[in-house]
Amino acid sequence: MTESLLNVSHAMLKLSDIRKIYRLGPVELEVLKGVNLTVEQGEMLSVVGTSGCGKSTLMNIMGFLDTPSSGYLYFEGKDASHLTDRQVSTIRNQKIGFVFQQFNLLSRLSVLENVCLPLLYRGVNEQQRIRIARDMLARVDMSNLKDNKPTELSGGEQQRVAIARALSGSPSLILADEPTGALDTRVGQDIMNLFLDLNRNQGNTIIIITHDPNIARQCNRAIRMRDGILYED
Amino acid sequence: MKLKAIFIEAFRSLWCSRQRSVLALVGIIIGIGSVITIVSVGTIVQEEVLKQYKEMGTDILTITGRGSKTGLRLSDSLSLSGHCPDVRTAAPYTSQHGTLKFEGKRMEIPALGITESFKNINKLTLTEGRFISDLDVFMYYCVIGEEVLRKLQKLGVTDFVGAKVTYKDRIFTIVGVVAGVSENKMRPGEINRGILIPVTTAMRISNTHEIEKVIAKLTPGGNEQAAISQIKRYYKTVAKDLAVQVQTAKELIRQMQKQMRMFTLLLGVIGSISLIVGGVGVMNVMLVSVSERKKEIGIRRALGAQQRDIQGQFLAESVILCFVGGIIGIMIGLGASYIVARFSDWGFLISNLAVLLGVTVSFVAGVFFGYYPARQAARLNPIEALRAE
């Protein structure tokens, strides 16, 4: 409580001494060993590290999919370390847009419906959902394929749709976990350009988790993670 | 609005795994179908039985004598209505079995010894001729029932009234033909199967002084209980050691309804077992669906679905499954009971109870059997769910 009062800041995201310990039977595995990080509004940040260094865990905690074992998490200046399912769901829904390595589109739904999903959970009515989703698809240049099923799309196209879905809830923060990992270099660069454009021209705050130094280099801030600890480059 | 989207989603997801959905449906259809058939047939039978009583009237009672050397005497029974203000008419009768001979053909049939009042109490109608009259004392006249009529028709008889038949070696003249009636516990079945003769003649043939039973009708607005005690008191005064038993139509209907309710309940329980089996099938399908769609659940959670959204989605699926199964089950159940009614010559009716029961039960089954899988889905850890393939 005192902690949160002392740290009245307007950082988008602030992590303070975040630790994550996994208990596997008698063995305790400390994946995050006291992570401190502040992400400001409008930043484009990359977190680089080898697999198993804890960057996915970090992303899960920053995306409110997982809770830290200890430490404090502030989101838009507010203590967000201990929230109910409903509260974290609301944050995920309204404040965060996820982009995954494997796109994670629902194959049963059309492209447009996939983009509508976050709005559905927000209670936006159907007409409005479709309107917003169309806008978002236009922004990622995917309007012409809106009625297709995701399986009919190429990897790059699917990732564009996933980005449109992440954008549809107009989130404060976009979290991308290896967004180019499943794409070839050229298409990956296209996606990267899209992120750069969103950051520069729309002012989206973006965190990209990657193991690709080429991607990290293009972000205006790069953080290296090794063995559960963050190092700023 | 969100609810609508959830239900549309649920429909699509069920449609995508059609084969599995259909298999789950079959279980529910059989379950609901059997419950509905049982309840519906039960209602139809009950209605049918009631109809038979109502046709004859519920103001009827029967009197039997018991535990006496003398039994019910004809003369006492004939003057019954004079001594009991709540009894309007009384029709004493006897019954016996014997051989009826006609042109060398023999048939074993019963004969009822009756009085004139027997006709009105039993609401009999004649298709030909006249009924037995109180003036036919010791006369060899008879009125034939439906089945005897048919048997005689087969022998080529066309003019029944005036024809002569031999019953127990006595020659009877047919004076009338009585129309067929529905049988019940108050109305003797011999009316259809045998012949009706004057009670005096009947007693002479079988050489007895006792009658078997008295059917009595209450005065309009007469009190049933008062009539019973009046009857008992009357017989006590005319025959000291005679204990009479009085059974009323209302009491019989009550007993019958009670039995039928028990029977329906018992069958309903058996039907419910198949419903439970069907429900477990739905639960199984839902559990498989949850484990197959872990990834989807994870994605939805990442996009901001709350636990209750996920729970609602899966619950909607099982409710739809059970509801659709329920509707089909109701239709099949009603169809089956229609066929049963048709073949048994009962009047078919759609029991509101059965339909209401079917709809409610299928909804409840959907929620009941879907709750656990839906809860499992909602409680999945989002990260583990996302990691699933």
Question: What can you tell me about this protein's structure?
Answer:
The complex is a heterodimer of chains A (233) and B (389). Chain A is α/β, with parallel strands linked by helices and 233 residues long. Chain A has one domain (42-67, 82-232): P-loop containing nucleotide triphosphate hydrolases (Rossmann fold), CATH 3.40.50.300. Chain A contains eight helices and ten strands. In chain A, the strands form two sheets. Chain A has a six-stranded mixed sheet, with helices on both faces. A four-stranded antiparallel sheet of chain A has the order 2-1-4-5, covered by helices on one side. In chain A, strand 1 and strand 2 form a beta hairpin. In chain A, helix 4 (111-122) crosses helix 5, helix 4 runs parallel beside helix 6 (155-168) and helix 5 (126-139) crosses helix 6 (155-168). Residues 1-8 of chain A have low confidence and may be disordered. Chain B has 389 residues and is an alpha+beta fold. Helices cover 59% and strands 19% of the residues of chain B. In chain B, the strands form two sheets. In chain B, strands 3-4-9-6-8-7 form a six-stranded mixed beta barrel. Chain B has a two-stranded antiparallel ribbon with strand order 2-10. In chain B, strand 3 (87-102) and strand 4 (105-114) form a beta hairpin. In chain B, helix 2 packs across helix 12 and helix 12 (307-344) packs antiparallel against helix 13. The longest helix of chain B is centred in the C-terminal third of the chain and has 44 residues, at 249-292. Chain B is elongated. Chain B starts with a helix and ends with a helix. The mean pLDDT of chain B is 89.
Low-confidence stretches of chain A: 1-8
Secondary-structure element series of chain A? HEEEHEEHEHHHEHEHEE
* CATH architecture field of chain A: 3-Layer(aba) Sandwich
Quaternary organization: heterodimer
Q: Write out the strand line-up for the largest beta sheet of chain A, numbering strands in chain order.
A: 6-7-8-3-9-10
The CATH fourth-level homologous superfamily of chain A: P-loop containing nucleotide triphosphate hydrolases
Q: Any idea of the CATH topology of chain A?
A: Rossmann fold
What's the shape of chain A?
A: globular
Strand content of chain B: 15-25%
Percent range of helical residues of chain B: 55-70%
Radius of gyration of chain B: 33 Å
